[in-house]
Design goal:
Number of helices: 8
Structural class: mainly alpha
Distance between the termini: 46 Å
Strand content: under 5%
Oligomer: single chain
């Protein structure tokens, strides 16, 4: 094809048909430009097609991560419900006079149910990969992109608050153990001494004592913590993850 055009060009020059040669040259330039534009268009189309394939792959991975998170939040909501119920039961029984070491141990068993300080753990590997690789722009739906960013931002905020609240409850727990030894420590002590139950656990039956007060305060802090985690974080994040999963499934 190149040789064909070269022969035509040489023939026009030989015949001294300069005007026709110029027209031909311009036509040749136009053909070259058109060829370049077509090549660029094809390249852009291929890049756009590949980006669409990459977008769907990332969104599929995000959906699977969100499903893991969604199940996790449901589990944490169930745990929070169990913990808050145990907190309320403990506070009710705390005001009932403890008659024996066995009753005191049973009371502390309830406390152990809600004495938890688990951190927030989510599956964010795909999102982190997209951020680090600058791939967030692959998401063509601006509303979806905004919701995904919002979800992970709220997860990070919740994680920070949960970490702070857990650290505080651990401090409160340490103060409580310092002022009011638990039943298991006293059980060991009672086996080695002749000290009676009232001497060991009198604070459990004295709402005016400092030890009773710190126990009541600690149980209240844990009740508040688990209720806040459930209502403010786990339920909200469960709803957000559910909405995102539904949106992503519709895109397949």
């Amino acid at each position: 094809m190149i040789n064909f055009f070269r022969k035509i060009r040489q023939q026009l020059l030989t015949e001294n048909k300069f005007s026709k040669y110029m027209l031909y040259a311009m036509g040749e330039i136009v053909l070259v430009v058109i060829g370049i534009l077509i090549a660029l268009q094809v390249n852009n189309w291929n890049e756009g097609r590949q980006e669409r394939v990459d977008e769907l792959k990332y969104l599929s991975r995000l959906r699977e991560d969100l499903k893991v998170d969604n199940a996790y939040f449901k589990m944490r909501i169930d745990e929070a419900n169990r913990y808050t119920d145990a907190c309320i039961e403990f506070r009710d029984k705390l005001f009932v006079k403890q008659q024996s070491l066995e009753e005191a141990i049973a009371l502390w068993d309830i406390f152990r149910v809600f004495n938890e300080s688990e951190m927030l753990t989510i599956q964010n590997s795909t999102y982190s990969e997209m951020l680090n690789a600058g791939k967030m722009d692959l998401i063509t739906d601006p509303e979806l992109k905004s919701l995904i960013i919002k979800y992970y931002r709220e997860c990070e905020e919740a994680s920070n608050h949960i970490t702070e609240f857990n650290a505080y409850t651990v401090d409160v727990l340490n103060v409580m153990h310092h002022n009011a030894p638990n039943a298991y420590e006293m059980e060991i002590l009672s086996e080695k001494t002749d000290v009676g139950f009232e001497e060991l656990f009198g604070y459990l039956n004295d709402p005016t004592s400092d030890a009773f007060g710190i126990i009541l305060y600690a149980s209240g802090i844990y009740l508040t913590k688990h209720a806040v985690f459930r209502d403010r974080y786990f339920e909200e994040l469960e709803k957000l993850s559910t909405d995102l999963i539904i949106r992503l499934e519709k895109m397949e």
